[in-house]
Design a protein that fits this description.
This protein has about 775 residues and is of the alpha/beta class. Helix content is about 45%, strand content about 10%. The chain folds into two domains: about 375 residues, TIM Barrel (Alpha-Beta Barrel); about 350 residues, TIM Barrel, CATH 3.20.20.
């Protein structure tokens, strides 16, 4: 039995990776120096795993931005608009695909399965794949030569890669497999020639709902890879859920199968025990949670491992995480500021690898050799469970009485719409933004000084009010129709609220990658959630005092707070969502009673919580919608509830989006080139809706003509009098000049659209 890892965080212990990338993009770090700094981070990751005693260490899981983008570039799948001329794509081209430039829009970005990691979506239409450079050979040799590590290269599986890509019809899937299979075979042969004994091929798509035709294509892929690259062994790795087609997957002509024994609902384990496991294959047993941050129940894991040993000989078992550790922070050892009980219950990437090594040690040397570690794990988990933070009687009473809580607004949307029209008197196709304005170095510096005690609360509040006034004036000058206060007092859209709610804790360095260099520090929901004082009222009311234009109150919704946090593992996610919703409802009511008549409750993460199995979607969507409505249902008809969703495929859940019963919803469309608009050709949507008309994740200022084209396309299927015009997302990451220029163009595009569509709207 051996210990193995599937992937390690890229960002470094102090986000060195993020800082290097952003310095390079800002022109402060030359390319040669960037390569040097990223190599140092890459090697340090390997050294840590080596020091912790992991037997099988992954190589090639490191990236300069995103592993799916790496795969597209490795196979030369670069859209024509980037003027690719062949050869190995240079760094400028690579980052242009990810972030856009003055000549070309970036590739679309969306969620990696049901996680909060975003990947770059490859575009395949009209392209011919070719191997540009086998980067896995480079990283394999580097680890061996620099550190003496005979690593296991990690490659994104061909079928998953294609399923995550766009720009081809379903009937063309087989042709794309034919085009890419020889190149995948070449990658494997070159790895074998370099000395690699094993390769880890990640096929998380196998944990989704697949048909017989899909399984047949997968079988063909691996039969041909086995034949074309006989010199290397393949570990086919699945994760995030159970494999439904267990028999078909375990019969594939590969040398090992990796299964998730944490997020499988017990199905993978039952399949192994009931159906057996092939005697000629290695089992990658994903026993330690690769996505959560809690110490494992090590005795329970040992029991599960012993059960597996009844079906698989121990020399064919690899003990590993349930998925890559990309989704958790690097190390909990730095979190000395946390309460001792909570800290003792945490396990980040390094601690999870320690647990994996411990499980192998227990198997090799017996329980007596690890009795102290086991006793400590049991003690730490029990201490948190017995904490008063998990025994709030007020919260438990509310949850017990949910059946009597309101989940619906007093009136239906049609009636509310007329009431709101009379109150707000907004022009055709109102303009607004999604919430945040640029977080300049001055804003971040002020917040840092306040947190460190260098500034008093009064001085910091005065600074925030100055920023609010600046941007109220900017919005007035631009001529926007609905304002926001800018969120200058907020660090992160979830962390800000978690800091003000009971039941949350925050790390000092618990960063994880969200997309590109964007790192977030998810809150930890460890206890019962409750609101103890208003969170947003002061800043919103101050902003409203500066203008007669409506200012939206800005909140993050219960499902997004849930999905973007590390959630306690002793309650169902549904129950925790209801706790958050009840707390947020008090804030919604406080805003309304303070005169704020438009309140935006953002739910950008609602889709990413979807289970991978389609048959489980209805249950999740039901309680997700109920949680949102629980937080908003008590307001008056004239109060307009907004929500926002970004960078997800919504066409399959458009009915659930309507069921949220928000008066206005804004959804990203610019990076997906308006594809969401096609959803409304088949589905009637009767509420207010804003489809983002430009991509805020790119520094490029969009042209008026581009936004006009997006508006025109949307109004083919939506009525002008229900349409709002806004950017894709918040403007926190953009610079002042970019923001002003883009919003000015947006307002100009809106004026052109009003002139064009006013007659059509008046006749409705």
């Amino acid at each position: 039995m051996k210990s193995a890892n599937l992937g390690y965080p890229r960002i470094g212990r102090d986000r060195e990776w993020k800082k290097a990338l952003e310095q390079h993009w800002a022109g402060k770090l030359p390319e040669e120096q960037l390569h040097e700094e990223l190599k140092a981070i890459r090697l340090d990751r390997l050294k840590v795993q080596q020091t912790l005693g992991v037997d099988i260490i992954p190589v090639g899981d490191f990236t300069y931005y995103d592993h799916v983008l790496d795969t597209a570039c490795m196979f030369g799948l670069i859209p024509e608009r980037f003027a690719y001329e062949g050869g190995t794509p240079d760094l400028g081209l690579y980052y242009a695909m990810a972030r856009g430039n003055k000549d070309a829009t970036a590739l679309e970005m969306t969620k990696w399965f049901n996680t909060n990691y975003h990947y770059i979506v490859p575009e395949l239409n009209g392209l011919t794949p070719k191997l540009t450079r086998n980067r896995l050979v480079d990283t394999y040799r580097e680890a061996k030569q620099e550190l003496g590590i005979d690593g296991r290269p990690v490659l994104l599986g061909l079928f998953t890669f294609l399923k995550l890509s766009k720009g081809y019809r379903q009937e063309e899937l087989g042709g794309w497999i034919d085009a890419l299979l020889p190149l995948y075979g070449q990658v494997l042969r070159e790895l074998a020639e370099a000395g690699a004994a094993w390769v880890q091929i990640d096929e998380p798509i196998l944990a989704t709902t697949l048909g017989e035709s899909d399984l047949a294509l997968i079988a063909r892929i691996y039969a041909e890879l086995r034949q074309s690259a006989p010199g290397i062994r393949i570990l086919l790795q699945t994760y995030f859920e159970a494999v439904d087609a267990y028999k078909a997957v375990t019969e594939l002509p590969v040398h090992g199968i990796g299964l998730d024994f944490v997020h499988d609902g017990g199905k993978n384990l039952r399949a192994v025990l009931d159906q057996g496991f092939p005697a000629d294959k290695v089992l990658g047993a994903g026993l330690i949670d690769g996505r959560g941050i809690w110490r494992a129940d090590l005795q329970g894991k040992l029991d599960k491992l012993n059960a597996i040993r009844g079906a698989v000989s121990e020399n064919r078992i690899l003990v590993q995480p349930s998925s890559s550790l990309l989704h958790v922070p690097v190390s909990a050892k730095q979190e000395t500021g946390l309460d001792a009980v909570l800290r003792g219950a945490l396990a980040f990437a390094d601690e999870k690898l320690e647990e994996i090594v411990l499980l192998v040690k227990a198997n090799q040397l017996g329980l007596q050799a690890v009795k102290d570690e086991l006793a400590l794990a049991i003690q730490n988990r029990a201490a948190l469970q017995q904490s008063p933070s998990r025994a709030r009687s007020d919260v438990h009473r509310q949850i017990a009485g949910l059946a009597s809580e309101p989940f619906e607004r007093p009136s239906r949307f049609a009636a509310r719409r007329e009431t709101q029209r009379q109150r707000w008197q907004l022009p055709l196709m109102p303009t607004t933004t999604i919430g945040s304005f640029p977080q300049t170095p001055e804003v971040r510096s002020a917040r840092s000084k306040w947190r460190k005690g260098e500034w008093s609360a009064e001085r910091y509040e005065s600074f925030v009010q100055e920023q609010i006034k600046i941007w109220i004036d900017v919005q007035t000058e631009l001529g926007l129709d609905v304002f926001v206060h800018g969120e200058f007092e907020r660090n992160d859209m979830v962390e800000f609220f978690g800091e003000k709610l009971a039941g949350f804790a925050f790390t000092a360095n618990g960063w994880v990658q969200s997309y590109g260099s964007r790192c977030v520090k998810p809150p930890i929901i460890y206890g019962d959630v409750a609101l103890e004082a208003p969170m947003t009222v002061a800043e919103t009311v101050y902003a409203q005092s500066l203008t007669d234009v409506p200012v939206k109150g800005m909140l993050t919704g219960p499902i997004t707070i849930l999905n973007w946090s590390f959630v306690r593992d002793d309650l169902s996610r549904e129950e925790v969502a209801y706790q958050i919703a009840l707390a947020l409802r008090k804030e919604v009511e406080a805003l309304e009673s303070s005169g704020i008549g438009m309140i935006q409750v953002d739910e950008p993460a609602i889709r990413e919580g979807l289970p991978l199995k389609r048959e489980q979607w209805p249950h999740y969507l039901n309680w997700a919608v109920r949680a949102f409505r629980l937080s908003t249902a008590t307001v008056q008809d004239e109060t307009q509830i907004h929500t926002h969703m970004c960078y997800s495929e919504f066409n399959e859940i458009i009915d659930a989006i309507s069921d949220l019963d928000a008066d206005v919803i804004s959804i990203e469309t610019s990076r997906s080139h308006g594809e969401l608009i096609a959803s409304f050709e088949d589905k009637t949507y009767d509420k207010g809706i804003g489809l983002g008309v430009y991509d805020i994740h790119s520094p490029r200022v969009p042209l008026v003509s581009e936004m006009t084209a997006m508006i025109d396309r949307a109004l083919r299927v939506l009525a002008p009098d229900q349409f709002w015009i806004n950017p894709d997302c918040g403007l926190k990451t953009r610079k002042y000049e970019e923001t002003i220029a883009a919003l000015r163009n947006m307002v100009e595009a809106t004026e052109l659209a009003r002139a064009k569509y006013a007659e059509a709207a008046s006749s409705v």
